[in-house]
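Researcher: For the record, we're logging two predictions in this thread. I'll number them. Prediction 1 follows.
Model: Prediction 1, sequence and structure:
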Amino acid sequence: MEYIYRKLGVPSLPRQLMAHFLGASQIDIRTAFGWLDGGIREFGLGQGSILAVMHIGYYMDVLIRQQQGGTDPVQISHSQHPQGPRTRTISSLLFVDDALDISTSYSGIQDRVRISNQFTGQSASGGVFGADKSFLFYLSPHAYPTVALNDGLGNPQPIRVVAPSEGFRHLGIHQGTHNQWEETTRTVWLKLNTQAAAIAPRGLGKKELQYIINAVWIPSVLYRTAISDAISIAPALDILFRKTARRVLRLPHDHPNS
């Protein structure tokens, strides 16, 4: 908000008064994993809120990839599709605010529970979310297999998010060279290179290329580098963007000073 007030040209004293009225309260964020501590409000913004959401993003990337490689994909029937019921085959569980019908074998649920417990901790400890988790996956003691919330009510509870570097160690994933998180940056890097090779011969214009770089490529790597040493990948991205621009726009050089 402070940034917005400055851009609007609001003088210093009114800015301070507006921030004062908002107060220094705590900002909490509701997620599928519970309530995240968003940090103390300062100038109308929870300083830790974006970082907390980014932490979740790192872990969910790895979780979904591991579950997608599991056994017996889940059959999802979306009963509220505008064109009638639609069925999708996926290999991971989805948490959405909608009615989903999930059917799978007992072994399939066991496999997903095994993977998910690496993230949540079967006894509320040892997962990437620390000891204060909102829920964990487990097999029901009843006659039918199911996945349920540990409080039995589906109500999110406060949780603590550990640093990504610590969380990945719980999963047996270690940092790659140059302190990059191999599991989260390597896939994106390979994808960018594949896309760069694909668009080079398409004869795109300057505005089209700018859109791809600014609205597609940069956002895809931004949250992975915003809170880690993986920012060291920036020089490699710069070279990729320049070389792609040279090929697409048929420039004589890929550096403005050349």
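Researcher: Logged. Prediction 2.
Model: Prediction 2, sequence and structure:
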Amino acid sequence: MNFKQFDLHRHILQACSKQGFEKATPIQQKAIPEIIAGKDLMACAQTGTGKTGAFTLPLLHKLLHDTNNVQKGPKVVILSPTRELAEQILVSVRAFTKGTQLKTGMVVGGVGYGPQIKMLSKPLDVLVATPGRLIDHMGENRVDLSKVQTFVLDEADRMLDMGFVKPVETICETMPYSRQTLLFSATFSPGVERLAKRFLKDPEVIKLAQSHSEHKNITQSLFSADSREQKKALLRDLLADSSVWQAVVFIKTKHQADKIAKEIQDWGHRSASLHGDLRQSKRRRVIELMHENKVKVLVATDVAARGLDIKDLSHVINFDLPQVAEDYVHRIGRTGRAGAEGVAYSMVSRSERGLLHAIEKFTGRKIEVGEKPGPSSHAPKVQPTKKGAKAPKSFTPKFTDSAESGEEQSTKRFDKKGGFKKDGFKGNSKGGFKKDGFKGKKSSFRSNDGETLSVQASAKPSNQKKVKHHAELQALIEDPKAALESQMPKRKKPKNLPSNKKKRMGAGSSAGTPKGSAKGGKKMASRFAKSKGFKGKKAANTSGKFASKGANKNRSRGSRPSA
């Protein structure tokens, strides 16, 4: 059905044409005529089906035909459970009121009161608000709701979940009884029906197909992950897939949202977190970055499950399953917008299987187990010790050269820093490459399956003592006499020194004690100072070193000591 068939105001039709809206969605086809007729309405429709346009277009049409455009209080109040949804509604309203005299405004939490107070003091046509901040302004008599013509309660089921029943009652009590009330909800739960009976007068009921049937264009898969570490590893592999253009990762708590967002950033993906503790300005900036494709992954709590409209969102990933089955529908509804294809992944631990059954019962659809992606480039790959050979999972080495092979060399695949060692590795114990090109000894071993594998020993193997001891035992058995002689300590021959130097060094260096060494060092320092002509005072030093104050003073003045 074309919008022109509704006989809407020409400004509305022009705005629809500029935005590319030609045909009305099912909810718009049924709701627009009833709203223009002034009837109360109770409609069941999820976000992403054109619900906002279903009440925005007819209400603006009525305001543009209203001759009494000057009044202090708002004529239309649209109540939203979250700031994100309120901002989305305001953007939609202003897109259709551009070029008209209609005044619009928004009051939500997380921002300063000053601009809102200034805005409420002027004539206003449409006010979009969240319950808490609107009641704050009502308590200070900053807003007058006595002239409200239409009251829209959007996402009524979410209002109930967030405990906004009493605030909604307080707001409704200040409005005229003759007002038109429109209630939109994703489901008709008993609580929503009680709310409708309380605030609506003989409403028209519009109930479209259940929300889960609207997600046929979204591929849903689940993955088993019993621990948070397994979930993180799985999330890393999923995000490494090239098909993920933009994704929202839903998580249970605010703290975890910040933590996971930081880890995703460390993985090399542009990420941000979105939750209730962020100020409205920061939340707005995060959503803008998503729209500008400057953020790839958004880690969010359920506060963003409704009202988040990102055109290029390709994937939704449920890191934690929602506690309420209905929230699952709203989460995955962030992708596959306007009939586009979308993908929804859910990670399920053993403790979450009950939640999974509740979701499948609510949606009437069994979620199939997805195929886990292969390990991405971040996963270390074990290199075989020999080209074309694979070491068995467990084996006992059999040495072919007992003198050069080590019991532990064959099984160790890592250096001291935890890195993988490759054939022909040249390096020291710290993992650095040696400049002199040192290559460790090669040793070979034979595994249980009879295959000979080669190991390149490091420069300083940890089992060096064991290898040496093993070689000494073998030599002792074969030739005891030669082995004992080889183990005898050999005295080093003294160097050919001049006779005068031997006399000087004999007193101190030959003593072999710290005391004698210190004494000899003092004598050497004294003789060296006299021979060089230093006049400064000697500093006593047991190590034989000395310092001269006079020499330092002369050097500072630019003079040199006399030879």
